[in-house]
Amino acid sequence: MSFFDKIFSGKGEESEKKSFWKKIESEEDLQKAIESSFHNRIAIFKHSTSCFISKTVLKNFEKEIENLDQKVELYYLDLLAHRSLSNKIAEDFGVRHESPQLIVIENGKAISNASHQHISADQIV
């Protein structure tokens, strides 16, 4: 793989290797995540795999949360592969779609959301 492939392709992307992410790839996955929010706070990271800014924000966020002590379940949504799920999240939680975006959910309700450079581990604690 060339240097440019590593930078610009989705292959070998860091987030795919991080063990703390749970993927949302279906409405069933989304429903399980929401159900889980009644037991623990959850966060959904909506990521555009073709956007350099989104990749940068994701990497920075992952560095921040690696040592987080707070018990939070982290979910990852690939916007390009699952746009309809992203739209459903925006509609169901009354949060305008942005990318990248982090939505924190507790007891089935969005309690915080941020996009771009405003995404931070501080949102989840």
TrEMBL record:
Species of origin: Chryseobacterium wanjuense
InterPro entries the record matches: BrxC (IPR022551), Thioredoxin-like_sf (IPR036249)
Pfam families cross-referenced by the UniProt entry: BrxC
Domain of life where this protein originates: Bacteria
UniProt-recorded name of the protein: Bacillithiol system protein YtxJ
